[in-house]
Design brief:
This protein has about 400 residues and is of the alpha/beta class. The protein contains eleven helices and six strands. The protein has a six-stranded parallel beta sheet, with helices on both faces. α8 (about 240-250) links the parallel β5 and β6 (about 255-260).
């Protein structure tokens, strides 16, 4: 079980005053702080609710721990479906997002990797992550999203490409209503393959693939609101079409951090991330959902996959071709992977797990101790003949 992120960890990106305010605000006292509520954009799209800060600690801590496991080569792929809150800014909340766990995870990955590639397939533009790394070439952000018609958050035009050292390292793929699996996947494969593994020159067989950006790690935000029939979305993607992006990125065999994100038709969110967990684990899942406590949500067919939608596809072939050409043209300006000066790797934060003074002397086994005892049934023992198992 991952640790809860500490305020000092959150302040690696967010301003300390904003983090401190999130700690002390709650539904009972929020009316006492109207100015601060407005300053930090809390209220409308970002309501204050019970245990809000603990909620932020849990999902942010999980993404940070996922990045650390990848850094220490304890796994090849790490998943945090509770994460992916990509709208939160340095000093304010936005779009249901309070703490930007993706930025915190990427900062952790940058301690060990010279370059990180961020890919976002949420229906909304990944503005918070893009803004955080808009002036650096060490993080390339690629966002596929609905753009136009005053759709939230209103950013993500193809012309937004980064500035200063980060110029051409922000890639935006603005889409219109109703994009389907085939159009989305063709565009996704063309752009991501160009970014990651561009070509093998000439007819000579070369074992080492020449790469444009050469990311040391990839962060993939899998917002499920890009699925058909999402309450806030407007795309026609089926679960298979959405999951195809995950399958494609996995094939690069680059350390991969996968998170959730948006998704407002909850039964389809559960379906989508279940299918994508299976893909990441190379596990084939049956289409029939087994009986469980929540089976009533998945009627009447109780199946895992959902088809695409029937919204009119406003993404014409000429529009898709124009967007693709503009993006690939911008990528030509990246001649080679940007270099990073050698330096000592910053250490992981050392923060004690708990404060001895806060332990309840009346509780024999507290929550922290129980968490330490959680382990997989199949992690240490090979079978009945293993002496340690008995």
């Amino acid at each position: 079980r991952p640790h809860k992120a500490y305020p000092i960890e959150m302040a690696q990106f967010h301003s300390p005053d904003y983090v401190e305010f999130l700690q002390r605000i709650n539904p009972e006292n929020k009316d006492l702080f109207p100015n601060e509520m407005a300053r930090y954009n809390l209220g409308e799209d970002c309501p204050v609710f019970e245990d809000m800060f603990e909620f932020c600690q849990i999902y942010a801590g999980a993404t940070i721990d996922a990045a650390r496991r990848l850094n220490n080569k304890l796994c090849d792929i790490a998943i945090n479906w509770a994460g992916g809150l990509h709208h939160a800014k340095k000093c304010d909340a936005s779009g249901f997002c309070y703490i930007n766990d993706l930025v915190l995870g990427i900062l952790e990955l940058l301690k060990h990797h010279p370059r990180v590639l961020y890919i976002d397939i949420d229906v909304h533009h990944g503005d918070g992550v893009e803004e955080a790394f808009y002036f650096t070439d060490r993080v390339m952000t690629v966002s596929f999203h609905k753009f136009g018609d005053k759709f939230f958050p209103g950013t993500g035009d193809v012309k937004e490409i980064g500035e200063r050292e980060g110029k051409f390292y922000a890639i935006n793929v603005p889409l219109r209503d109703g994009i389907d699996d085939s159009s989305f996947n063709r565009l996704f494969r063309a752009i991501i393959s160009k970014v990651v593994e561009i070509y093998q020159p000439g007819a000579i067989i070369i074992s080492k693939v020449v790469e444009i950006y050469q990311p040391g790690a990839i962060v993939l935000q899998c917002g499920a609101d890009s699925l058909a029939r999402d309450r806030l979305g407007c795309f026609n993607l089926s679960i298979d079409g959405h999951a195809e992006c995950v399958k494609f990125v996995k094939k690069f065999n680059i350390p991969l951090l996968v998170t959730g994100g948006g998704g407002y038709t909850k039964e389809n969110v559960a379906r989508c991330w279940t299918v994508e967990t299976g893909i990441l684990l190379d596990t084939e899942l049956p289409n029939e959902i087994p009986d469980n406590d929540y089976i009533k949500y998945f009627g009447p067919d109780y199946s895992l996959k959902i088809p695409g939608g029937h919204i009119e596809n406003l993404n014409t072939k000429s529009y898709i071709s124009t967007i693709k050409a503009q993006i690939l043209d911008n990528l030509r300006y990246i001649q080679h992977a940007p270099s990073v000066q050698m330096q000592e790797v910053p250490p992981d934060f050392y923060i004690p797990d708990f404060d001895e003074d806060e332990r309840n002397p009346d509780v024999r086994v507290d929550q922290r101790s129980r968490d330490k005892q959680i382990q997989r049934d199949d992690e240490y023992f090979d079978g009945d003949k293993d002496n340690d198992a008995s």
